Amino acid sequence: MMLKNQVMRCLSVFCASVWVSAAIANPSEAPASSRAPALTATAAAAATPSQQHPELTVEGTIKKLVSKKKEIYVSPKDGGKKFEFYFPDNAQFFKAGQSVGFDALKEGQKVRVTYTQTGRRLNPVKAEILE
Questions:
Q1: How far, in Å, CA of 52 to CA of 34, rounded?
Q2: Residue 109 belongs to what domain range?
Q3: Residues 6 or more apart from 87 whose CB is under 8 A from it?
Q4: 64 & 108 share domain
Q5: Can you give the pLDDT at residue 36?
Q6: Residue-level pLDDT at 19
Q7: Best label site of 15, 44, 115, 123, fewest CB within 10 Å?
Q8: What pLDDT shows up at residue 6?
Q9: Are residues 121 and 71 in the same domain?
């Protein structure tokens, strides 16, 4: 179910960006009532999925942790396939709103991981310890 919601969210962002791009490129062809408001270059770039991937989240339990590789495996709370994350050096970690290091993560903890996806690769941005 969570994957379905993520796919729907990505699809809506993509459709909206295509519609906005078409309206900006050909404003005279769109009826006045459906013309998109003018966007700044920054907003238009942010709306393009190929340039920036939407942030997704997963909540679950850390089933395996490999400290050397800054790697965790998370089983989603609503079931399904395990997520495998390799954290880059610039990833952020939080517990009770406070910044912590990767070493604060432990197997069995409940976490929320925020990530982007490029193809099949999951790119974690931050992890929040929930308990």
A1: 25
A2: 56-129
A3: 70, 71, 72, 102, 124, 127
A4: yes
A5: 38
A6: 41
A7: 15
A8: 56
A9: yes
* pLDDT, tens only, 89-106: 999 999 999 999 999 999
The answer to whether residues 123 and 60 belong to one domain is yes
Mention every residue, 6+ apart, whose C-beta is less than 8 A from residue 23: 30, 34, 35, 36
CATH number at residue 84: 2.40.50.320
- CA distance to 10, 12, 21, 42, 128, per residue, from 76 (Å): 19, 24, 36, 34, 14
Please identify which residue in the block is written with the tokens 């308990």.
Answer: 131
Nearest to 103 by CA among 112, 93, 90: 93
- How many structural domains compose the chain? 2
Shared domain check, 42 and 63 = no
CA within 13 Å, CB half, 46:
6
Q: Is the domain of 39 the same as that of 63?
A: no
Q: Does the pLDDT at position 124 exceed 90? A: yes
